[in-house]
TrEMBL record:
Pfam families: ABC_tran. Gene3D superfamilies: P-loop containing nucleotide triphosphate hydrolases (3.40.50.300). PANTHER family: AMINO ACID IMPORT ATP-BINDING PROTEIN, L-CYSTINE IMPORT ATP-BINDING PROTEIN TCYN. This is Cystine transport system ATP-binding protein.
């Protein structure tokens, strides 16, 4: 589903991604862990071209962007639509209800009919457990509820891959579980997911593969058992000791 080849990203002099190679098969959940500043968010943002990589290739399904040469601008919107992004701070439109937030993309970007978009938004809000909150504005919702709207909004665009950038980091501890549950349900339904998170329990329970990044490279990868119980690299061990 996703194939990343020798991906580099540099901000001015700062080399943030230094040759990332990664493949994610359809239906798999990859959890990316690593210290702050290791490039995890930048990798996700490159995957949906919120950041323009400096060089390398990203293929998602049958669409390929090769950043070693000038990428034609017209290729980017359809590429971006392959992925749905969930942000740490939800990024909902504050002046729109939950329902309107979810309808916005399908109607304005994809040109879906309002009635169809509304039906889909209602269905998605039900799916994330917010069927009774469809007319609530973000300020009337808890952080966990807002983030569930954020997930429903990304799903409304019918992406092939869901990208999660520390989706529970801004939440009070008691609200983390409800968001992780929605993510686990999605994983169980076969959604392909790349998740940057500090929730090691989620990684243990839901990941098919865990990627440990440090200093802009993938230091180690493996299934959760290998990474958490039997890490090979000193840097992975050190990181896990610090957080567990
Ligand atoms: P992580 O998600 O692992 O914490 P990030 O991808 O957010 O790491 O950041 C990696 C490095 O890139 C950091 O040093 C950060 O300051 C830098 N960085 C991220 N975005 C930008 C930007 N837009 N401009 C300049 N530097 C950036």
């Amino acid at each position: 589903m996703i194939k990343i080849k020798d991906l580099h990203k540099q901000f001015d002099q700062l080399k943030v991604l230094k040759g990332i190679n990664l493949e994610v098969a359809k239906g798999k959940v990859v959890v990316v862990i690593g210290p702050s500043g290791s490039g995890k968010t930048t990798l996700l943002r490159c995957l949906n071209v919120l950041e323009q990589p400096t060089s390398g290739q990203i293929a998602i399904e049958d669409q390929v962007l090769d950043f070693s040469q000038q990428v034609p601008k017209k290729k980017i919107p359809s590429f971006r639509r392959l992925t749905g992004m969930v942000f740490q701070n939800y990024n909902l439109f504050p002046h729109m209800t939950a329902l309107e937030n979810i309808m916005e993309g399908p109607v304005t970007v994809k040109g879906e009919k309002k009635e169809a978009a509304r039906k889909k938004a209602e269905m998605l809000l039900g799916k994330v457990g917010l069927g009774d909150k469809i007319h609530f504005y973000p300020f009337q919702l808890s952080g966990g509820q807002q983030q569930r709207v954020g997930i429903a909004r990304a799903l409304a665009m019918e992406p092939k891959v869901m990208l999660f950038d520390e989706p529970t980091s801004a939440l009070d501890p008691e609200l983390v579980g409800e968001v992780l549950k929605v993510m686990k349900d999605l994983a169980n339904e076969g959604m392909t997911m790349v998740v940057v998170t500090h929730e090691m329990r989620f990684a243990r329970e839901a990941a098919d593969e865990v990627i440990f990044m440090d200093g802009g490279v993938v230091v180690e990868r493996g299934n959760p058992e290998q990474i958490f119980s039997n890490p090979k690299e000193a840097r992975t061990k050190q990181f896990l000791n610090l957080i567990q």
